[in-house]
Sequence to fold (557 residues):
Amino acid sequence: MWFNSTEVLNMSKEKFQTVETKKNERIFHYEILGIILFVLTIFTIAKLGVVGKYLMLTVKVLFGDWYFLIVLLTMAYSIRCILIHQKLKISNIRYLGIFLIILALILLSHFTMHKYVRNYSQNYLKLTLSLYFNYFKTNQPSAIVGGGIIGALIFYLFYFLFSEVGVILLSIILCFIGTVFITKKTIKDFVKMVFGFFKKIFKKVKKASNFVQNTIDSYDSSYQIKKIKYHVYPTNNETEYKNASQVAKTKANDLKMILNQLNIFYTQISYLVCRNATMYFISSHYTIQISKIQPYLRKIFNNYLVKYDNIKRELILEVSNDLQMPLRVSEIEKASDEEVCFGIDDRNQFLNLEYDNNKSIVFGKSQQQIGHYFDSIIIGLMHTKQNLNYYFIDLTNTTQLSSSTDPQEINHVINIINERIDKINKAGFSSINKYNSQAKNPEIGEVVIIHGIDKFLNSDAEVDKIKYILQTTNQYGFIYLFSVSSENSYVNQIVNLFDYKLFLDNKLSYSNQVIGFQRFDLINPDYEGYLAYKNIIIRMTILLLQDKEYQSIKNRY
Fold:
């Protein structure tokens, strides 16, 4: 049989064109798939529109707390489709390793959901699925999702086959095998590699530890920047404290009964009996609607303040104790052996003056009350073993332990500040800490108290003076305590420069801006206030100093 060369050539061309067309179609299909998956992934991550919101919700409900791994893997696959126009080889041992590790993580993460549901029903899977569907409807950000629907199905399959311990062991084994698959090493080589890694880490940690120890040993401890140190409050009345603890235990049980009756899920109820209040903590993976339990809470507690800790996912009830205990002079003296106490927080711990956060301002309606508070600080300063100077300028003339009532004394303090700054800078140092590490005659700390700073701030010039000392002296060994009992435009220019803000009442507009949600009717106006530090609000107890105690204190010191 004879073949025409032209016909053969045409047949070859047609075959080549067919193969090329199929290749182009395959590339086109992969690129379209990759683009679609990439766009959907972006919508999911950014929660764009209804589509993005429900895509993210679906992935989260299906795969649980490790949903973001699925999203990232989907994005990686989409990019692969766009760049590499080939099928994903499922048989690849490294892909299998990744799958096993993800499966292990999903199984382990579902223990949180399992521990949660087992308190309410023996039908674990049914209750778990109902919670997932409820979460899909409500989408509560604080809700726990464990391993998701897929994780729950696999978890309870292994749970009924091997028990809880078996699931843990199986997950560890899967993680180990997955890691071996990814590294493509034998088990023997993998174990040697792990031990070698930890051996290197241990050597580096030991080397760093020796360096730190040598640095500490060579450091001149004649002057150290003070950090806040906490001391557990030793109650003066153990009988009353035990009674308050018993009451708290009873109230906590009542609270537990109410939550169970209302079918409100929670993981734990705890309480802490503090000096003037008892804190009740309700831990839950789901947001508890306070309006739902409010009518029942009123039957248990006469008066309370509701707070919520987003980090710990705790609903906090602050209830004032029947027994109110002010801070006494003897406690200040005891706490001030090494530190200078300025109050006791809502966890029964002393708060002390420090150099790192060295600026405090007190807001109060009563100048006499603030004066009593500053007098307590002076008592601590006189009693402490620290080498400290202090300047107490009382512009209200309501205290008995002040060193001056003359506004011009502020200029004298500024001169002292400038002299110290010049001295330290000329020596080639930027802080008192560095200066004192080498100086023969180290500088000591200075505490500056100005009672009634609003009496001084009557012009831009005075404001500039106060701004200067608050903004420039953080590293030079000064601590500032100011007070305000009235409002003006000049005061508003400096309030944000303070690290601590103590509010003894809420009559001033600024207190309402900072701690407006707090309830001053719950605290004792004579010796309690709210301390604002960054985003933290603390119920604080201060000294209750009787008039008859002043002369006795003066005679002692």
In short: Residues 238-320 form a domain with the Threonyl-tRNA Synthetase; Chain A, domain 2 fold (CATH 3.30.980). The CA atoms of residues 342 and 377 lie 6 Å apart. Confidence is low (pLDDT under 50) at residues 211-236. The chain has three domains: 22-190, 238-320, 329-556.
